[in-house]
Amino acid sequence: MESMRANEPMVDGMTLRRGSRVRLRPSQRADIVDLALAGRIAEVDRVEEDADGRVHVVVMLDGDPGRDLGSMSQLGHRFFFTPEELEPLAEAGDRPPDPQVLVAGIGDAFRVDGSFGSEVVDRLRGNRLPPGVHTADFGIRLADLAQALQEGYGAAVLLCATSRGREPGTLSVTDPSKAGEDGNAGSGAEGPLGAVGLARRCGVRCRILLVECEPADPATDGHSATAGVLSPPVSAVLDEAVPLVEGLLNDLLIPREPV
């Protein structure tokens, strides 16, 4: 179905927009899916208008583990409703903030320390993150990452192992745009700068930060490449990486006046 972004519809005096929480009220109840969804709580992902001018609200179910995969996860994870089939839950002044920051782990788990980003994401999910933060583990699916970054995020934090000739386990935060590397290919486990470049070519304009960890070098450090297992130097800094990312999130979520 060809569609385009639509104006935010009003239901019961409240505007439905990305991040709005709603209760599903399927009007047709024509099949088992409608019956299963009736009464469920969901969050608005986006509002679209088809070629005939009909407005559709795309929602994600609360508690769905596949909701953070971006628009590539639409099948079975995102559902289309008319505005009349949705019951807004939050009061106008109490609406949760729109998702603002995507925290994404990237890297090849079959390379030395390539699962660093995935491990940090898992630990972050065990903490209470600020409203407006979505987490996802993309691995080597950089095209899916670029697609997800087009979902209206104000910023993104990419977590990855990157070889830059430092001591194994060294953590760093890089803003590729300020370092003159925005869009260039990287030398990390899955080329984090290449991921940034792909996102930029897809039209992504949000701020992107890289949280990188120097991987061990099997040739000199004696650490073998074991899928999903981190080397001792990298494993030792996971507890340091988590508060580092949380500090970045607190800064990125501070409202700023438009420049």
TrEMBL record:
Keywords: Hydrolase, Protease
Highest rank taxon of the organism: Bacteria
Keyword Protease appears in the UniProt entry: yes
InterPro entries: Pept_HybD-like_dom_sf
Keyword Protease attributed: yes
GO MF terms held by the record: peptidase activity
Region ranges (Disordered): 168-190
GO biological process, one term: proteolysis
Name listed for the protein in its UniProt record: Hydrogenase maturation protease
Organism: Halopolyspora algeriensis
